[in-house]
Amino acid sequence: MANGSPQNFSNHTRLDPPFHFFILPVFVITLIATIVHLVQRPGLHSAWLVVVMIAAMAVIFKTRLYALKVQDRVIRLEERLRLASLLDAALRPRIAELTESQLVALRFASDAELPALAARALNEKLAAPEIKKAIQQWRPDYWRV
What we know:
This protein is about 65% helix and about 0% strand. The protein is mostly helical.
């Protein structure tokens, strides 16, 4: 989205073209082909190819999920530091009560609206989509993959 259109709730999700439009389709098509091969030529070798393809699919998804989890951990740390510097002293001890998903959603809030939105998230137990929808001044994050 860094192409000029400002990031907001409706367009903040991001596709990774090499993953979504090449790697994933190649693996899905290959899995389908191995299943067709197993149906046409039943046997241990054909069945094993299906098992290997399922394992390969699991690997690509787990690898992607591991990268996203690392990004979430970094975002969580960044947002806790940002909150520690922006929240009133009375609210700072409650930073630890924010869930990972709340912290990840709060990263889009501008510094000006973060304290009030964090207080709402804590007091009203807002879910991530609710937090994102409540943001008035969107702080873009173009780095998340």
